[in-house]
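Hmm, how's this folded?
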Amino acid sequence: MYLRECLIENVGPIEFIDRPLPFNDDGTPQPLVLVGRNGSGKSIFLSYIVDALTEFAKIAYLDIVSGQQSNFSPYFKLTGGTNQRVNSKYGIGLLEFCKNDINYSYIDKSGNLEPNTYNEKIRGRFQAVQSWSSNENQKLIAPQDKKSFEDFFRENAVCYFPPSRKEIPHWLNRDSLSDEVKFIIEQKFATKLGKPIFIESSVQENKSWLLDVFLDSLIDFEAVTPDDATQRYLVLEHYFSDNLLKQYNKYGKNILETEIFTISGDKNSFAAKVDSFDVLEFENFKVLFDKIEKLLSTLVV
């Protein structure tokens, strides 16, 4: 699904924008870069796109916005006079998306605007939502194709990084904050998408995914020698919590022909003794976790 048309008038600092999105001859979209001073309307432009996608997702899933229910669905983006340009009679945002040669339209209108007086600006576009109410604030999407929206959001990653996006900087002492890696395995439900569109911070999720991949890869790692079990589970216990090991059914279980045991006391000082052990014994694990450290350090910007 691609955005093809965007018309915004009398919204915040935006007086009028009518922008067809650029595409290549083969139908693939070209990059679009928004450039403007602070307060010129870049975030408002993007907010209409994410609001339209949110409305599409709400047709197919029940976990898109907080408080959403089968018969009640709060708006992600407020509608009404609060968004309207000062001294204007109306404010309007119109978007048109295309998927498999089918157009999906979105409208967010406030104030007083007769549909037939806007035909010259619409120019045959946004036909599915042209029958808006003249005097009422209104937000509509059409057609409301649940199956098409369900397939689109299940098969693709859709996310929006807002102006309030934040990540922990490299200079911050992270031990002074709560920055624990969380691993969550959730059941899949037909009515729940299970992944957010609005994302302010992604460090924790990236860490979780990265460590998840490495943990799963351990099943294919073979130790150099099988003599000293203690030296093998030491690094595992340092990086992965007991709860995590239990969650993956690896706590107290055989892995690489050794037992994983609970380490009590200060794990940091305990793990610092790794370098004093036989290098060959830790050759595989040390290289593996050195890579983890380097990759994790690049996630915090």
Summary: The chain has two domains: 2-155, 174-299.
